[in-house]
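Field notebook, page 511. I keep forgetting to write these up properly, so this time I am using the form the group agreed on. The chain and the ligand, flavin-adenine dinucleotide, are recorded exactly as supplied. Prediction of the bound pose follows.
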Amino acid sequence: MKLAFILGDQLSPQLASLSKLDPSTDQILMAEVRAEATAVRHHKKKIAFIFSAMRHFAEELKKQGFTVHYTRINDPDNAGSFRAEAERAISEIQPESLIITAPSEYRVFEEVKSWQDEFSTSVEILPDDRFLATPEDFAQWAAGRKQFRMEFFYREMRRRYDVLMNGEDPEGGKWNFDHDNRKTPPKGTIIPEASRFAPDPITIEAINDVAHEFSEHFGDLQPFHYAVTRHDALTVLKQFIEERLPSFGDYQDAMLQDEPWMYHSHIGHYLNCGLLHPLECIKNAEAAYHEGSAPLNAVEGFIRQILGWREYVRGIYWLKMPNYEKANFFEADRALPPLYWGALTRMNCLGQCVRETRENAYAHHIQRLMVLGNFALLAGIDPREVNDWFHVVYADAYQWVELPNVSGMSLFADGGLLASKPYSSSGAYINKMSNYCRACSYSVSTKAGPKACPFNYLYWNFLQRNRLRLKGNQRLAMTYRTLDKMTPERQTEIETDAARFLGDLDKGELV
Ligand code: FAD
Ligand code: DLZ
Ligand code: SF4
């Protein structure tokens, strides 16, 4: 008899370990363990989402005839960690072998590998075939390249999976339609409602358990409207494709006050815990284009995120771990300020994004990159602290995707392996892509002094501070020329403003 251990981000019917099982003889182990919820002190809503999705998945497996040994977080015998739960199950059930699909995170994979030598039962680790490129595929693509660029990887993936292709050529004659994707919705636009599901008794129980066990964790548990089954996650995908995908491209970078969901798909957490498969999302979007219900710029933009970015960051993660965790190109060492945990701030963009993150365990890409990440980059916050925060707060955060996005894309902590230049900007970009600045205590059009938008001087001060590290970057050559044309007085003014602001930030004053 085989025992398959299924982890909380492996909730897929086509999981490798499941396909090896015979329901009449083999059995399944699933466990809610304190170690996973506290190694990183996840957002309460994220834990409730995972526990509820796990409990629903276990019920579905039981309906298929499987014997499922399910340990809840508050079971008196809960052994507290994956290892201890596996050992307990092995001693109780005495299987011939334990099988497990490769864990998505380096830490857990290393742990599971050690079981192969240490457990009395044989332990078989199966490859996770729910991604579209294996770590080996990526390593092969990366071999011999001096620089990695997502765009070239993405083109190969388009050809390999025959997505939006016209023979050898990309559909529409271009691989990438990003230039068409920088609009803000006109005043009065009504954004479609995000999908919402009323919690069923299983979800209500999971919410209550989290309220009881993890009351100290960051984030709002209620209201809880996420899908927790594959069936409902497919509904989210369908609604997105019908209602939001046509405008996804145009408004992909836009941010509006009190509009957390915009035209994004909100499927990251379903993809990352296995309820959705990336190829079905891609193929459904492609079909919408061929049926004429969504334009190419939107469909290509959406597909690039999943077939390109998602696979690319995972490839980098497995290629560069474990050292990637330590990357700190700018030697940034500032502590994460309390405003990331909800302390009052006068910076409306940050206040908005943090509030929405606390409420929903969600923020869309541009909020993460150009507000929350941009500020951390410009203020020189220690990448470890920034990574910890991003890993805690988002329902879709698992280290394989969070770390390359934070250290590589947002903080440039890997020195340019993942991105060709830092995604840094002054307040002008935030003002162009959002209406946050209208409700802010700072003035986005003011460059200097206490009234000025802090992004304005922090942007130039970041370039001043890191001149030696960035001077070789051709993509910043023009920006440095602009900085160099500034008068010495203006340069000193930038330094003075930045020193005042960062000093206040460090002292915990209201900024
Ligand atoms: P949409 O905008 O609708 O995009 C569709 C899908 O494309 C997403 O669900 C996701 O699966 C994929 N995708 C889009 N961009 C990326 C990307 N850069 N990397 C990987 N996949 C991508 N994504 C996570 O899944 N987990 C994280 O922990 C995470 N942390 C991030 C941290 C920072 C600093 C930044 C800049 C980005 C991060 N992202 C992360 C990527 C992206 O922001 C989220 O995938 C996206 O916001 C999820 O919302 P959505 O499902 O509405 O995405
Ligand atoms: C994120 C998470 C949390 C909070 N809790 C659990 C859990 O109790 N049981 C479980 O199987 N998985 C959980 N997860 C997801 C795991 O952290 C994830 O499966 C591993 O990190 C993958 O390597
Ligand atoms: Fe953010 Fe500056 Fe705009 Fe205020 S003025 S919302 S701090 S970008």
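OBSERVATIONS:
- DSSP finds 21 helices and seven strands in the chain.
- The radius of gyration is 24 Å.
FOLLOW-UP: compare against the apo run.
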